[in-house]
Amino acid sequence: MLIKESHVDVPTSANGKDSSMRMPLLADDTLDLVICSHHDLQQAFLYTIRPLPATQRRAFPQSASSAKFIKACHHHHHRFYSKADTSHSYGTRRTLCTPNSRSRLHRCRTIFIPRLCWAGAVKTLESYDADSHATVDYLLSLPTCTGLIGSTGMCLGGHLAVRAALDPRITACVSYFATDIHCRTLGPYTEANSSSSAPANSNHTVDLFSKLKGELSMIFGIKDTHVPDQGRDLIRAKLREADCVFSFHEFAWAQHAFIRDELSKGRYDPAVTKICFEILLELFGRVLKTDLGERDGTVAPPEHVC
Fold first, then answer.
1. Does 224 participate in catalysis according to the annotation?
2. 176 pLDDT exceeds 70?
């Protein structure tokens, strides 16, 4: 089976500003559609597919494409670059980063590549949402679309995959080691807040779980220093409080970014990675690839038997 690689430019608009988001597509002859909101895909798929390391492309986007899914890998930092800046690989961008630019600040402030950013520009939650909605709109416009769409992502992308799933048009979501959900630090914020109580008028993802209408699978490593035990416990409690349909997987020795092979900084775990991909295939295969109609929310509790 051969994987077709292409891209499309999708217009987006948020906070009074218009932009164009280049979205790489990976597919074979398929009818099922998946958004890929991977943290590194967003950055490396800036305007071309080539900067993404080949081993990482094989690990998920191409593997999912061979499993009969179209992968639309949208790039959320497109508002901070011009289309002339297409030659910078992921590694090049890393060398240009300031010491703190790999922190969560770059998710709302444009310190990711200082010389390419707009002074004072901020990536807002509304802007993230506009990008995801535009991606869904595009996928639904395709003649091959079945109307069944899922989202998946890693790290920041894991968070954005969950946030994208707040859109009721997304019926399945697999999120890998999602950052910034538990501490409400995506987009502009005053300080981290891991309280179980939502701030007034909160638009943070963890406080909007009641909007999740599809099925969610969240995957973490217990040794993840970005999402500690308390953070994972908060996410799980909030999902239960919102009565979401979800699975929650924690691997004993896995650290953060354990899937991202040579970009994992020594944390890559191929055995756990294989299991995690099977989790994605199980959920997407069951929810997106079978014509079972809408989920029945009135299923009776299981009988208590030995």
1. yes
2. yes
